[in-house]
Amino acid sequence: MAILGNIIKGVINLTDTLTSEKNPVEAQQEVLKNLLQTAKNTKFGKKHHFETILMSDDIQESFADVVPYFDYNKINEKWWSQLHEGKEDVTWPGKPSYFALSSGTTGKTSKRIPVTDEMIEAIKNAGIKQVLALNNFNLPADFFEKEIMMLGSSTDLQEKNDHLEGEISGITASNIPFWFKGYYKPGENIAKIDDWDERVSHIAKNAKNWDIGALSGIPAWIELMLQKVIEYHNVDNIHEIWPNLKVYTSGGVAFSPYEKSFKALLGKPVTVIDTYLASEGYIATQTRPETDAMQLNFDNGIYFEFVPMNPDYIKPDGSLKKNAPSISIEDVQLNQDYILIISTVSGAWRYLIGDTIAFTDIEKAEIKITGRTKFFLNTVGSQLSVNKMDDAIQTLEEKFNTKISEYTICAKRFEDGEFYHSWYLGSDITADENEIADALDNALKEANKNYKVARSKALKGVKVNVIPVDKFHAWSDKNKKKGGQVKMERVMKEKKFKKWEAFVNS
């Protein structure tokens, strides 16, 4: 009998019962008030009159009126760069203990995003919320005695001046509570290995020594790790190595494009739980099995605003125009794409995180990630978001009975002077590429009326190239870094797409 597991599950049940449901609107008002109160004497707070905003009748409206939008480049140039010069009290009291390095999907150059002690605490609290939510998933008691494989970036953080630097998954893993370390795998020594292939090699060698009950990490890299373990031990699926694996916590990107290829590595079904951890904070987590939507962490150090998704509000570089209107959580609508704006306990203010979301349940503040502002494809009016592209990819998987775990797209002008959407699909599909292109085109027409209109006018058609999925992994390895928070860019501009095509054909 799983005695320890029953005790842990009982504590989770009791804590969940005693925890009252918070009102997202009231919680968000309180979060903003606390952020402004704490930062009012910083350089940023004085410049933007936080003390005056706090005395206004409508703090949320005054905040939106006075403080402009910032993307990373703008806030780093004007404010965060001062932190690198050793200055204090810039956008948040004191100095940050960490900087999260994030190249995201934009290239080799890392962003350096401040991570304060308050943000570490907020991430821990969100993690506790996620653990408590497991009570809703009807997991057996012995699950709570199993180990958890967290595959992120290296926990061997780099010391620089008076702070540490690394990717956010490495920073959070290096700050796990002492009581959790007995459950955490691959363990501190392996987790510190910087080279991703070497780290995965050690995981494969040690896999049979562990009783893994849950996995956590970005889908593309979790898949590669599972493949390496399966190959190393010459078995058919991962459940032959980890028979008690029951949960996979996904994060960073939408899971749907990876669902079919992920399931092919399993011997039996697992519960998939979506999470949304960005370098700027722990945004949301799935709290119930009836939906794959995630609940915003609305009471935990992040104030959210939402800009209706409209191409007229977005500059060519993906940043927001000054006149883009924002709304707070009480005014959002269902199934409307919004550009996500956050203000945080790490001193990010009205910060464009780069993601678009849609609410699936307003009362519970549940959302889905629908895309990236930089991946919104609007050449010749097609207005394609990543979620529409993902839906089309799933249609192809069903039609051709295949797996397509990676893809990228560019709207480019071909030799005939016409615009086409040029797609590269990572798959072993053997169908004729023209047939695939027709099916993809039809799926997009059905999913998006703007795309259908564009296809009748300036967008000539679709071209498809099928390549091994390993090419996508090699591209990430060459241009950035394997593993961690790195994600394949779904949409490329023509200049980068030329480099991509040269790489694919080399």
UniProtKB/TrEMBL annotation:
Regions that span the bilayer: none
InterPro entries, per database record: GH3, GH3_C, GH3_M
Pfam family of the protein (one): GH3_M
One Gene Ontology cellular component annotation held by this UniProt entry: cytoplasm
Domain GH3 C-terminal per the UniProt entry, residue ranges: 389-495
GO molecular function, one term: acid-amino acid ligase activity
Domain GH3 middle: 298-363
Taxonomy, superkingdom: Bacteria
PANTHER family assigned to the protein according to its UniProt record, in alphabetical order: GH3 DOMAIN-CONTAINING PROTEIN
Name recorded for this polypeptide: GH3 auxin-responsive promoter
Species: Polaribacter porphyrae
